[in-house]
Write a structure and sequence with these properties.
250 residues, 3-stranded antiparallel beta sheet, 12 helices, 9 strands, 18% strand
Length: 250
């Protein structure tokens, strides 16, 4: 139910050759890029946090805010936390920072690993400290914390080569094997209707993580929270059965 086709080199060829069946798109509103906690831009009255970069909207705007995102190891420059070393996106992030002329004011810092990157943004969000760096969604972080992606020029292949545009979003699809497609037509019809969103997925990950919930408990939480959408995947009789069952859940 969550095939990231852009990350599967043989996806389009295999689909064309009939090696599996694509049933539809789960979600296509995923994103990645440079993020900041929302309180950096808007502040947070409940936490007593003042907005320190109220006009920050785009990657190019970072040029004005190096003094906000201070590098703790070099107070004379700002710090942009980069992507994970070895990921192709890390090369692109470095290209973006260079092409926008930010290296004169910022250090591009390597997090070293995915857990270290997550720990970095998590710590900043919980402490109410300014942070800017690469992240993506849906993830636990985007489901748990209020983070804002800095926009860029709309994606185009030409600008992408120059490192001067937004990341493209991916169609995250629902796919099944040919054998599975023939096995249960009723289930296949449900999967054809199955669709979520990046935000729904991220919040489910956050619920599961924060509550140390198993798959069954998380599924019940998800179905209850997004009941109307889940019921829309089903034929009327099955939707009624599920709706009646929900009323008996603890």
């Amino acid at each position: 139910t969550e095939l990231w086709q852009e990350n599967i080199a043989s996806y389009q060829t295999d689909l064309k050759d009939g090696k599996f069946v694509e049933l539809g798109i789960n979600f296509s509103d995923n994103a990645q890029g440079f993020y900041v906690p929302r309180f950096v831009i808007e502040g947070d009255k409940e936490r007593g946090i003042e907005a320190v970069a109220p006009d920050l909207k785009t990657v190019a705007d970072l040029d004005k805010y190096a003094d906000v995102f201070v590098d703790p190891e070099n107070a004379g420059k700002g710090r942009i936390m980069g992507a994970i070393p070895g990921w192709e996106v890390d090369n692109y992030c470095q290209k973006v920072v260079e092409n926008y002329g930010l290296l004169g004011k910022y250090n591009y810092a390597s997090p070293g690993s995915e857990p270290a990157l997550a720990a970095s943004i998590k710590s900043a969000c919980e402490k109410g400290e300014p942070w800017v760096g690469y992240y993506w969604e849906p993830t636990y972080i985007s489901g748990k914390y209020d983070i804002v992606r800095l926009t860029d020029v709309p994606y185009s292949p030409e600008l992408w080569e120059q490192g001067k545009c937004d990341f493209p979003s991916n169609n995250v699809t629902v796919g099944v094997s040919n054998a599975f497609a023939q096995k249960d037509p009723e289930l296949i019809e449900m999967l054809k209707n199955y669709s979520t969103s990046s935000d729904m997925t991220a919040k489910a990950i956050a619920y599961m993580t924060d509550n140390k919930a198993d798959f069954t408990a998380t599924a019940k939480w998800f179905i209850t929270k997004y009941k109307d959408q889940v019921l829309s995947w089903l034929p009327e009789d099955k939707a009624k059965t599920l709706n009646d069952a929900i009323a008996d859940w603890d």
